[in-house]
Amino acid sequence: MDAIAPFLDAERLAPWLSRVIVDGALVEYGRFLLVLIRMSGLMIVGPLFANSAIPLNLRVLLTLSLALILTPALPRHLERGFDRLDRDLNEVLTRDEMPPALGHRFDQLQQASHHLEAVGLSRDDYARQTAAGLPQNLVGFAAVAIGELMLGLLLGLGIAAVIAGLQIAGQIVDQQAGFGLGSIINPELDSTGSVSGQALSFLGLTAFLLMEPFGGHIRMIRILVETFETLPVGEAVVTQSAIELVSGLVQQSLVLGIRVAAPLVVMMSLIDLTLGFLSHSVPQVNLQAIGYATRAGLCMIILAALLSGVSEVIVGVMSATLDSLREVLVFPTG
Fold it and tell me: Which DSSP symbol is given to 121?
């Protein structure tokens, strides 16, 4: 009793206990902030979430709610990440099972666990999260926060680039149909946009929300949640392959715009040839007076006939885009 009497002294125990509680609360608060920042990156530029029609306070409430739900579940996500990476199911994680971009984390965990390289990491070693893993100063926290924000931004930009390709297709359609004078204000970008571009972008957003087996917005959030399994809080990695993928998606958006508008461009070219032939064959007909109405009406008919096929193309491209983003963000290769 004499040996443990100093520890039972309330005057000595109270400061130590309060310091432990405060340190633990600060660690959890730091993790919550980093989770919030990673989720905010998606909410800033992601389709639907970044729409100005959704009130800002509602978007902030959604981000805070997701962060509050995810923060207590971080240890469980690490266990799932161990199961994903343990390909041979022997409950030991070796370096060759880790993605190349996560090799440094494997070395750090192995050094902290004092294990030999041939032994690997156990489940407890991989899921070990201590206060030392978080930044200890404001500059370090800001650097880590930038990496967390970039991870969410890349995911949102990848899908936003695909939808931007539909606006390009709409501009091509308006140029062919003569709707260019009917440009409208786009409140999201604070700029003018084509009528057909707005219609196709809404069609793309609708197809994105109704993707099977569940909506694309749910898949986006799910991909970002899965990143916590292999990229714990404070260790977000934006690899060169992820940046190259997003830049490739920008090029793919241009290809998508051409694919969507190509059938209508071909049909309108044939209509122009027909009208040109009639103007030379029957000069008495004033084609300049009826040409605009004819082109506009036929363009609307052709566009309505192509909408079903366009929806399938949009869903296929967006599904492939989400799969590619999941591959490079959840399992970074370098």
Answer: B
Tokens of residue 90, six digits: 């022997």
With 0-12 CB in 10 A as exposed, 13-18 as middle and 19+ as buried, what is 147? middle
Cβ contact 190:293 at 8 Å: no
Task: Please tell me the distance from the alpha carbon of residue 262 to that of residue 38, in angstroms, as a whole number.
Answer: 38
pLDDT in tens, 228-284: 888 888 777 777 888 888 888 888 888 888 888 888 888 878 877 887 777 777 776
pTM: 0.79
Whether 42 and 77 have beta carbons less than 8 Å apart is answered as no
Whole-angstrom Cα distance, residue 92 to residue 83?
10
Q: How far is CA 141 from CA 6, 48, 66, in A?
A: 38, 29, 21
Take residue 131 and report the two structure tokens written for it.
Answer: 């206060």
Are 18 and 129 a contacting pair, CB within 8 Å?
no
Strands 184-186 and 191-193: antiparallel
Running DSSP on this structure, what letter comes out for residue 266? H
User: Which residues have a Cβ under 8 Å from the Cβ of 320 and sit 6 or more positions away?
Assistant: none
Separation between Cα atoms, residue 46 and residue 40, nearest integer Å:
10
pLDDT in tens, 274-310: 877 777 777 766 666 676 777 777 777 877 777 777 7
Task: Report the distance separating Cα 316 and Cα 171, nearest Å.
Answer: 22
Closest CA to 241 of 156, 327, 162: 327
